[in-house]
Known about the structure:
alpha+beta, Alpha-Beta Plaits, 4-stranded antiparallel sheet, 32% helix, globular, nuclease, magnesium, antiviral defense, RNA endonuclease activity
Amino acid sequence: MFFLVCFDIVDNKTRYRVVKTLKGYGTRVQKSVFECANMTEHKFMKMKSDLEDLIDHGEDTIRYYPLCRSCVRNVEFSGIGMLPYVKPFAVL
């Protein structure tokens, strides 16, 4: 599974903790956007739980956008950066 994770965090200390947590799960592609590739359902639920424990649910927001493999292949961008890497499927 591939997720694009975007956040808007009011408090600087909380934002730092969210960024630190997300660095353990994905790649930062913009200041408040991470690409999290090759996630299992268990890993995604753990990440979401870790993040929800950090935020103020009355002021902050985190959005999780799942992207299918073909959608990730069609990602486009302008400026600096790299296309996301998605691990190939194993052939059985």
